Amino acid sequence: MDEVKDLKQKTINGMLWSFIDLFSGRGIQFLTTVILARLLLPEDFGLIAIALLLVAVSNALIDGGFSQALIRQRF
User: Fold this and answer.
1) Using CA of residue 48, residue 54, residue 58, residue 63, what is the dihedral sign?
2) pLDDT tens, 13-41?
3) How far apart are CA 32 and CA 29, in angstroms?
4) HEC assignment per residue over 8-59
5) Which residue in 63, 38, 61 sits closest to 48, CA to CA?
6) What's the whole-model pTM score?
7) At what angle do helices 2-39 and 42-63 cross, to 10 degrees?
8) Contact 30, 23 (CB under 8 A)
9) I need a labelling partner for 9 at 20 to 30 A (CA). Which of 19, 58, 63, 71 fits?
10) What are phi and psi of 41, to 5 degrees?
């Protein structure tokens, strides 16, 4: 019975850290986009958006789930 409680606690902790990881990054990304939209001309913002798209695609290919594996290994 103690193992079940331990597994449940580890699952909850893992989900919490995954949630924090995902939404803190998205929140910072959103705020950065809003600030850049206010500071830059539309043409410049479009160039930045294209560059950020390329960075996001390459990050998705490079990361390949490393943060999830790290959380799984931690708990």
Assistant:
1) positive
2) 999 999 999 899 899 989 998 999 999 99
3) 5
4) HHHHHHHHHHHHHHHHHHHHHHHHHHHHHHHHCCHHHHHHHHHHHHHHHHHH
5) 38
6) 0.56
7) 160
8) no
9) 63
10) -70, 155
